[in-house]
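Residues and backbone
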Amino acid sequence: INLSLESLTNPYLREMTIKWLQDACLLVKTDFARVQFYTGAEGDKASLGFGKDDIAFPTASLKNWLPDIYAITIFGKPYIDLFGRDKLLSSPCYKTEELFNGLIWLQLGEHIFDERGSKESLKNVRQAVKAHLDKNAFFDPELPKDHKYNVPEFDLSEIRAPIELPEEDSK
C-alpha cells in the first residue's frame, strides 16, 4: 500500500486517512505500507526521477530492497521475521505500535501531514531507524547495482496461484 500526500490540513481527514490505512492493511495481508507527505519541491524532484523509488515504486522492487522508511511505515510478517518484532518495536522514532493483526506501525514524527512530516524534516530520524533495523535492507544509490541487500522471503503462492478453468464437456 502506497499513500503519498501533498497536503492534508483537516484533522478529521487526517484521522480518517489513518483509519483507512489500518483497515486496508487488514484486508490485503500487507507486507509493507507507507504514508509520506511531500513538499512541492520534494514531489517535483522525485517525479522527475531524482528520488529512486521515492513517490511510486514497483512492488517487485521489495524483493530486492526496501526503498526507505517513511513518515508512517507499516511492516507485515516478512519484515517482522527479517528484523524481529522487538527490534521494530524499539525503533528510535516518535511512535511504534503492534496493531491487533500483528502488523508493526512505525511513525517517525508527531506531525506527518504537513511540512514537519516531509522527507527532509524527518531525515535524521529516518537514518536512525534504518541504522537501528539494518541499513543493508534499504536501497542505497551509492552501492553497486548488483549489491545484495538483506530482504525477506515472500510467500506469493496465494496471489500467484494458477487459475483453474472448468473442464469442457466433450459431448
